[in-house]
N-acetyl-gamma-glutamyl-phosphate reductase (Sulfurimonas xiamenensis), 334 residues
Amino acid sequence: MSVTKVGVIGASGYTGLELLKILINHPKFQLSYVANSEGNTTLSQLHHSLNKVYECDVLKADIDECASSCELVFLALPHKTAMVYVKPLISKGLKVVDLSADYRLPQDIYEQFYCPHTDTENLSHAVYGLPELFRDELRSAKLVANPGCFPTSAILGVLPFMSRRVKNTPIIVDAKTGVSGAGKKLSDNTHFVNVNDNLFAYNPLMHRHAPEIAQKLGVDFDEVHFVPHLVPLTRGMISSIYIQVNSDFDAYEVLEEFYKEAKHVRVCKNPVDMKSVAGTNFCDIYVKRKSNMLFISSAIDNLMRGASSAAVVNANLMMGFDEDLGIPNIAYVP
């Protein structure tokens, strides 16, 4: 059976670990290169949970060595760092799935919310990694910009109703996420004493994922009112979304019809919860209408559908495999 050699650069973080866990058991991907910024360690030393499960050396990231070992590479790196690797890797003929924000937005919007972009050539060719919107484009992509976790949950919730939304009215997204979404680097917000038994908003109305939501929904940034909250959980995400709609329609039937071919979206008759999607690539969506107001609730695992399992789905499509090949789809908590 032919396999595709793949690599992970950025193996130290939470999303890197989730990628490794999926790739170790993937029937068509062979994990051939694992690296971080320091190297000189092994996988079991880096992630004790993989001890006696899978062992390999973790190398210091090197573009030439990666290119000689892989056909496709996942970049689980921070924004700005990722684009440094993308340009030479693409030039050497590799396919790349980038989990950072570096290729998700047009240059002007990206630079407004992040930093100057140093690889505008590849930016113009990147495919946004949301199969429900760009499945056909992903099949021929060389570079995929994996979506952010907040935009994934918000876009999938709102998208089916955009044609029924009252134009120029607010799209209100009230989202809650587990602490793992902030990564391993410690901050005042993620310090145990601050986050434990606590809940708070951060970057309300100006969070840099808001323009990503707006851009993919085809609306102005001022129409998206996005407020993220940090909750004392390790992982998981729920977005509560409010939009105004017109005309008479059955909102549940609209969801069912829109996602009837989607392998990783589940339309729910009861309000969604985080546990039911933990460890999976599912996005669960619930909708309720009252007069002209629509309430949409979507739940994902922020490390999986919001990052790592979504990245492997995109890689499957890029390599011509079935999109759910090797993707865990049974929640691991009761």
